[in-house]
Amino acid sequence: MNELIKKLEEQQNLKSDEMKWLLENNTPELRQEISLRARAVAEQTYGKDVYTRGLIEFTNYCKNDCYYCGIRKSNAQAHRYRLSQTEIMACCKTGHELGFRTFVLQGGEDPAFKDDQMVEIVRGIRKEYPDCAITLSIGEKSRESYQAFFEAGANRYLLRHETATEEHYRKLHPRALSLRNRKRCLKDLKEIGYQVGTGFMVGSPHQTVENIIADLCFIKELNPEMIGIGPFIPHQQTPYQDARPGTLEETLLIISILRLMLPKALIPATTALGTIDPEGRELGILAGANVVMPNLSPVEVRKDYALYDNKICTGDEAAECRVCLSRRMESIGYEIVNNRGDHPNKKS
Ligand code: SAM
Ligand code: FES
């Protein structure tokens, strides 16, 4: 076996120059070897189970202007929508009937959803579905807001750090956003007691191997429960419309590396991975991921939550999405399970 893969599995980390070697020698043989180890490590904790989360994209309004993102505020062509509390509850009802036990409420940073309203929405879901986990993914907030959502019943929070390198952060975001505040948010979320997810886009504009190594170091140190890794895909109405997309091969390698670095982490095979390759999500699971996130948003709004071009699953019924993913997982010997799918060290 490749010595570095062996070392990574044993020590759950590598020196920067060793990590660089892995990232720069991404051959099919290396990927085959590392994904086999990553799969074996994932199976020690999760067996053949794949956890599932029902994704509810409840608003595509955003006050931010991230240069890579299709729903950034400067995209005047985006058709904007927000779901009402009643519509969100209807998505949860459908999801619960389909077997989902985790709901992910994701959206742009929409000022129309004030804290009080988010608290009410979270409370409503908590009351109706006490057996479910509630995950929020609504961006940067104050510690007080995060605390209020947690007390209302939210258990998990997804906030990708996007890049751990200041200089790179500046190339992806306007001045109003800072890496410092992003890290402050992640720290607050951890301290409050959320299961926290972070991550980054693979192949984002101007990303270097050194940036990726810094991202891996940051994730190792933060020790999040969840890690979201997907390829960057350009969106036609953004400043990075002509940037090259991230590749399947690099994303798969990084998923495997992260599985070996954080053996128990919850790692999704993302929709973006399924968008750059028809079998991307299956390959993601085979590279060490153990979560899928089918879309539960109403069919009418799905195409409007367009973070990048050609996003998949914008036409399916919720039920079809779940059936389709179950079939896909079965085809590679894995099984979607109907439980909350908590991190093994943290069941709150
Ligand atoms: N507003 C919340 C936030 O900022 O965390 C959640 C929504 S945001 C759209 C969710 C994630 O989508 C981001 O963290 C980013 O990594 C990803 N994303 C945005 N634009 C993308 C693109 N063009 N390609 C791939 N992923 C993208
Ligand atoms: Fe706000 Fe993308 S710029 S979600």
UniProtKB/TrEMBL annotation:
Its cofactor is [4Fe-4S] cluster; [2Fe-2S] cluster. Keywords: 4Fe-4S, Iron, Iron-sulfur, Metal-binding, S-adenosyl-L-methionine. It comes from the Bacteria. Residues 48-270 form the Radical SAM core domain. CDD domains: Radical_SAM. This is [FeFe] hydrogenase H-cluster radical SAM maturase HydE. It comes from Acetobacterium fimetarium. The lineage of its organism: Bacteria, Bacillati, Bacillota, Clostridia, Eubacteriales. The gene is hydE.
